[in-house]
Amino acid sequence: MNKKKRVAIYLRVSTSEQTTENQQRDLQTIVNQQGWDLVQTFEDHGVSGAKGRDKRPAYDEMLKAATRREFDLIMAWSVDRLGRSLQGLLGFMEELNSLGVDLFLHQQALDTSTPAGKAMFQMCGVFAEFERSMIQERVKAGLQRAKANGKRLGRRPVGADKEDLIRSLRAQGMGIHKVAKAAQVGVSVVQRVISQ
User: Fold this and answer.
1) Which listed residue, of 1, 13, 98, 183, carries a Cα 20 to 30 Å from 49's Cα?
2) Given pLDDT bands bounded at 50, 70 and 90, which one contains residue 76?
3) Contact by Cβ (8 Å): 170, 176
4) Is 188 a residue of the active site?
């Protein structure tokens, strides 16, 4: 009799307002249908897929558990839950391959235990990176349009008079919080002016 496949589920949402409930439900249904053994669920809540492993604690812990061979398969709802850069996704895939751990992606109907699944995973990574670069280009275009329409981007200037006042009060030994109150600006503005 074949050994029951041990699986881990990875869930991620980018903002704290989002929930992983739908991801969890869909993946749990597949686990039940396949008769697999769910051994652990890893969840990064409010973390961008563009962040590295060091900024995604559950993702990092999942890879450590994979190294310890605690499961045979990692399940995720979609390729973009794992990451947004092709380099990061390919590195992830190479690490799983070296550990003998397979990957199942629900939305892409992908199972890397097959050769077609491995090839498809690489294609999905290309599209995830393409989508991210398109978003970045739209943001840049929006900022350029705002600039062209006369909108000022970035921090508002404090003004030479306030800068002089801030420096003068600070030189007299006044504390940063008192200087901010006297100049009617934020503490960060005072810190920025005196560090210039």
Assistant:
1) 98
2) very high
3) yes
4) no
Q: What is the pLDDT of residues 136-177, one digit of tens each?
A: 888 899 888 988 998 887 777 788 888 889 898 988 988 889
| Residue of 14, 48, 78, 85 with catalytic role | 14
Report whether 73 contacts 6 (CB < 8 A).
yes
Sheet with 102-105, strands from edge to edge, namely 37-45, 6-13, 73-76, 102-105, 110-111
Strand partners, 111: 104
DSSP symbols for 15-76: STT--SHHHHHHHHHHHHHHT-EEEEEEEEES--TTS-GGG-HHHHHHHHHHHTT--SEEEE
- Cα distance between residue 190 and residue 168, in whole Å: 11
Which pLDDT score is estimated for 163?
A: 86
3-state SS, one letter per residue, for 173-188: CCCHHHHHHHHCCCHH
